[in-house]
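User: Quick sanity check before I run a bigger batch. Here is a single chain. Can you write out its predicted 3D structure?
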Amino acid sequence: MPPVAAARPAAVVAIADDEAGLRIQAHLATKGDRRLSIIKLKEFCSERLPVYMVPDSFAFHESLPKTSTGKIDYQALQRKSEVAVMPHSPVAADRVGTTGGA
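Assistant: Done. Predicted structure follows.
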């Protein structure tokens, strides 16, 4: 089974990065406490996307934030991503699974 079958829905946001310019972070809603293999996710994305579109990091959530109209709230995901990359953030250490650069 492809790794994304266990992660629905998913969304990506671009994060400003002083060294790389921009980083792509994927946010995945997983079923239960199931953690997906970051290596398998990277492989899956690499087989289907150009190199510059493959996420640099992955964040796992029980559910993705929604707007009042029921759509994915990308602004909320952007804020979560910015908090996650702040140095010494205990929230980031507890809630975000990340990989190094692609």
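Residues 41 and 100 are 14 Å apart (CA to CA).

User: Great, the batch can go ahead then.
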